[in-house]
Structure formats: structure tokens, C-alpha cells
Amino acid sequence: MSTLSPSDYDAIRLSLQVAVAATLLSLPFGFVVAYLITFGRFRGKVFIEVLVNLPLTLPPVVVGYFLLLLLGKHGWLGALLNHAGIRLIFTLKAAVIASAFVGFPLLVRSLRVNMEGIDPELISASRTLGARWYDTLVTVILPLSLPGLFAGSSLMFARSLGEFGATIIVAGNIPGVTQTMPLAIYEYASSPGSEDMALSLCLVSVGISMVVLLLHEMLAKKSAQKG
Predict the structure, then answer these.
(1) How far is CA 65 from each of CA 22, 60, 96, rounded to the nearest angstrom?
(2) Residue 225 — pLDDT band, cuts 50, 70, 90?
(3) How far apart are CA 134 and CA 137, in angstroms?
(4) CA distance 145 to 118
(5) Secondary structure of the chain: what % helix, strand, coil (to 5)?
(6) Where are the domains of the chain?
(7) How does 113-131 read in b/e, with b if 16+ C-beta sit within 10 Å?
């Protein structure tokens, strides 16, 4: 097994950076969506559920291509951003957005499962005491949703670390700029004689993922014990 090169360390750093940014970016949106699906009573809720979970069933390259159509130079949102001087495609920001889209369903699902386990009597008691819906949200639902928030964040973080298909479509494979660990492994695996370098990065990826998943299991057990 070969030692890691400076470009490999860049790939590791970029992977962690993308995973953290994608998770933090998704947290408020994930909480709102999970809240609406769990407690909302409105038409079209099933459609929102299907839309949220769609990235779980679509190939990541399909998600990446749709993002390319949306954020590309000729896409309706990309054209507006380009007019404002903001460029996303083939930048690290695009990798963050791609990872956020692919991992978002895992975050929402964990939050939703946690919210569905909240005792309805606690919410009813809060309303009976005169709390408005946003008071109940902040003082009851949010604190009790923290285990699901942490568990979903860890799952999304792990998923973002391994994102490949959508990332390579919208961010490319630029060493030191957008080349994350999966992209670096792909490049090594495609180059004859670089199998040892690919294995080294694979082992690093496995190690990081195991740490994150162990943290996820610990949080899940604590949540179950409290329940």
C-alpha cells in the first residue's frame, strides 16, 4: 500500500469540506420539510414526500444532470446567477449542492421518524397552556427532535463523503479544486499501475465512514433509551 500524496490529502480535505457544508446547508430545510410532512395537514403532502425521497431511487448521475440543466450557463437559475456574476458549475459549491440533494432524504427521514415518536400529549399540553404553534415548535418539538437531527446529520455526512455520480457531472474532477476522495479513487482505478494509491484512499474512506456510522449508532441507541 502506497503512502498518501499531497493531492490525496487535498481530496480528503475537500471531501470533508463538502460533506460538512452540505450537511449544514441542509439542516434548516430538512427540519422544515420533516415538520411539514409529520404535522402538516394539506393537499399535496404525498407529492412532497415522493419528491423528497426521489433522489434515493434515481441514479446520482441523473440528479447531477438535472442540476446541470438547472444551474448550467443556459439553465434558468444558472442564467440568473451568471448574470449576477455567480458561477457554480465546476466549482466546489456545485459539489456541495450535489451532495446536499443526494443526502437530503436521509436527513429528512431520520428527523421524521424522530418527530413521529414525540408524545402527542406533550404537544396538546403545550397548546392547552396557550402556546402558539411556533412556541410549541421551539420549546417542545425542536428539543425532542435533536436526536433525529444528529442521527440524520451523521447519515447525510457519510453519504456526502461517498458521493460520486452527481458530483462529477456538475463539479468535474479538478485536482485540488473539486476532486473529492471518490473522484480521486476513480482516477487512480482508471490509471494502470495506480491500484495501491486507490487502495490507500479507499481505506481512508472506510475509516472515516466507520467513525461516522459508529457515532450514528451511538446516537440512535441514546435516542432509543430516552424513548
Answers:
(1) 18, 9, 15
(2) low
(3) 5
(4) 8
(5) 80, 0, 20
(6) 6-226
(7) bbbebbeeeebeebeeeeb
The CATH superfamily label for domain 6-226 reads MetI-like (1.10.3720.10)
| Grid cell at residue 193 | 499501475
Least Cα distance to 106 among 154, 48, 62 occurs for 154
Cα distance between residue 99 and residue 169, in whole Å: 12
Amino acid at 129: L
Instruction: Copy the grid coordinates of residue 42.
Output: 394539506
Taking the CA atoms of residue 93, residue 97, residue 102 and residue 104 in that order, the dihedral angle to the nearest 10 degrees is 130
The grid coordinates listed for 59 are 441514479
Q: For residue 175, what is its C-alpha cell? A: 485536482
pLDDT: is 10 or 139 the higher one? 10
Spatial CB neighbours of 184, under 8 Å, sequence gap ≥ 6? 7, 8, 11, 175, 201
Phi then psi for residue 118, to 5 deg, are -70, 135
| 129-187: pLDDT as tens digits | 887 878 888 888 998 898 889 889 999 999 999 999 999 999 999 999 999 999 999 99
Cβ contact 71:97 at 8 Å: yes
